[in-house]
Amino acid sequence: QVQLQESGPGLVKSSQTLSLTCTISGGSFTTDYYYWSWIRQPPGKGLEWLGAIYNDGSTYYSPSLKSHTSISRDTSKTQFSLQLTSVTPEDTAVYYCARYDWSRGYDSWGQGTQVTVSS
Q1: In terms of DSSP bridges, do strands 113-118 and 11-13 run parallel, antiparallel, or are they unpaired?
Q2: What's the average model confidence in pLDDT over 18-36?
Q3: Of 44, 43, 61, whose CA–CA distance to 116 is shortest?
Q4: d(Cα 81, Cα 73) in Å, to the nearest integer?
Q5: CA–CA separation, 84 vs 93, rounded Å?
Q6: Poorest-confidence range of 29-33, 46-50, 53-57, 76-80?
Q7: Cβ(81)–Cβ(97) under 8 Å?
Q8: Is the distance from CB of 104 to CB of 91 less than 8 angstroms?
Q9: What number of other Cβ atoms are within 10 A of residue 13's Cβ?
Q10: Which of 7-11, 64-68, 73-77, 112-116 bottoms out in mean pLDDT, i.e. has the lowest?
Q11: Which residues pair with 24 in a beta bridge?
Q12: Within 10 Å of residue 88's Cβ, how many Cβ atoms?
């Protein structure tokens, strides 16, 4: 059974870059056909999809955040990462990594990590 775990700093200053990593155990980038995704939930708001990376390395981003979002992967470490540049306090949220399958939807989630952007 695949497990996902987010890691990264809990506090980032405005205008800096937020960097998070998701470590996958029990799964593979190259043999499993999933979209490995980043999703966040700001306080008091709903879930917001940020982007995803597919098993062939293709990346997909939310149109509203595409200009300052980057997702990459390290197949040797079975990790994928999120970078969000020029953050503001509005980027404060719980950030989740998750696995998406076309037939099952989001079937695996990390526990989430709180990131606070200070002004």
Answers
A1: parallel
A2: 86
A3: 43
A4: 6
A5: 12
A6: 29-33
A7: no
A8: no
A9: 10
A10: 73-77
A11: 4
A12: 10
Whether the CB-CB separation of 29 and 36 falls below 8 Å is answered with yes
Nearest Cα to 35, choosing from 1, 4, 64?
Answer: 4
**Three-class secondary structure assignment of the chain:** CCEEEEECCCEEECCCCEEEEEEEECCCCCCCCCEEEEEEECCCCCCEEEEEEECCCCEEECCCCHHHEEEEEECCCCEEEEEECCCCHHHCEEEEEEEEECCCEEEEECCCEEEEEEC
Q: Tokens standing for 65?
A: 């955040």
- Distance CA(109)–CA(99), nearest Å, equals 7
Contact (CB, 8 A) for 116 and 92: yes
Look-up of token digits 């939930």: 41
